[in-house]
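WARN  no MSA supplied for this record, continuing single-sequence
INFO  ligand: NDP
INFO  echoing inputs
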Amino acid sequence: MKPVKVGLLGLGTVGTGVVRIVEGHQEDLQSQVGSPILISKILVKDRAKSRNVAVDASKLTEDPWEIVRDPEIDVIVEVMGGVAHSRDVILEALERGKHVVTANKDLMAMHGPEILAKAREKGCDVLYEASVAGGIPIIRTLIEGFSSDRITKIMGIVNGTTNYILTKMSREGAAYADVLKEAQALGYAESDPTSDVEGLDAARKMTILSTLGFRANVALEDVSAKGISNVTQEDIGYAKRLGYEVKLLGIAERQDDTISVSVQPTMVKTSHPIASVNGVFNAVYVHGEAVGETMFYGPGAGEMPTATSVVADLVAVVKNMKLGVNGRQAQLSYKVMKLKTDEQISSKYFLLLHVDDKAGVLAQIAQVFSNLDVSIESVMQPSAPHKSGAELIIITHNASKAAMNKVLQAFEALPAVQQIKSVYRVEG
Ligand SMILES: NC(=O)C1=CN([C@@H]2O[C@H](COP(=O)(O)OP(=O)(O)OC[C@H]3O[C@@H](n4cnc5c(N)ncnc54)[C@H](OP(=O)(O)O)[C@@H]3O)[C@@H](O)[C@H]2O)C=CC1
Ligand SMILES: N[C@@H](CC=O)C(=O)O
Ligand code: NA
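INFO  complex generated
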């Protein structure tokens, strides 16, 4: 039986897992696709580097074009990362009729439409299950499982590194910088972990999920992103006292033909299932008009979980090759949806304020909320006041983002408010 030949671009965390699964599960894979799957060439930056998996050194190359232009290679698996270079390589591979599997969310969030259009033109598959929530088959689920429904909300913990950090900060009181180093050593973080901790990686994933879930043209620029670098132990402590967990949440909402997509540290009620997603685990909560509430859970990063999705995509490509139906999976048309204005985006908020500890301050603060028509759900003044005044924790009822911004502006100008320490969106 003629083997299906694969060119693997990258032999780092994910690439190593791909080699292990393709070799270790070869018999199972063959029984599904009817022929051997052979990784015939592997692209690396540095051939001399020692590897975590045994590979035949003659397969290694530092020249991507040697792989992409090899007529024997049927499928390219891109797990090297980066955007401009990967885009060029993938477009050339598609031009030459090769199918593509990629784990690259940066690329798919920024150039997905261009790459998928080229794939359609050439009758090729481009599958990217590993790009969002590493080991969870969420892309398939959105495309196929919910094709019959109209999704109104997608809420996700879609970055393993930050969930790992927040979990360790919350459970062990660990220091942010130390846990980040651990996440890097475990292979969870991006090569530049700024994209993890500043919410950009999650924003890219939410671009992909909301595009597929809402069947809409969502651009990365449409997604507002705030990361976890300002989350403090104090915030996490207060969240726990009030029955919340701090999570980096991607939230995409749709009403008719308007949408909003954002990523921000959020206080999630402990009774919500997503609040108990810890460590490197990810979860994607999906609400559909017909189905109601659903949630998908699993490891979000790391060698073997991510490689599981990559190789499952590879199997899907090879099955399509056998059936002669490659290039048929792509969505035919996307709706143009408007972004919600700040007046249309609504949620509850948590505020931690440092204020003067004297008579009448609470009344002034309440007056600001009242003037801007934001209703308060609860107020707490923790028993241990800070040195130069009092701490005040306020949780609002649902309020528009626009009204909340005005409240914050009013507090900036109010002498009795010494500092707005923290502001969080509240869910659940
Ligand atoms: N790690 C994870 O948990 C997840 C990662 N991803 C995505 O998968 C991709 C790979 O991630 P990961 O495996 O962690 O990354 P690594 O940094 O561990 O590995 C990257 C690999 O690609 C090679 N490489 C990178 N750039 C080039 C280049 N310009 N030319 C030739 N070879 C190159 C490197 O070569 P060398 O080894 O010689 O340096 C290395 O083998 C990224 O897009 C990432 O976002 C997606 C989901 C989860
Ligand atoms: N750095 C990413 C890797 C998977 O996409 C994460 O931590 O989730
Ligand atoms: Na996935």
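The pocket of NDP (ligand 1) is lined by residues 10-15, 43-46, 49, 79-82, 85, 103-104, 130, 134, 187-188, 190-191, 301-302, 306 (CB under 6 Å).
INFO  checksum written, moving to next record
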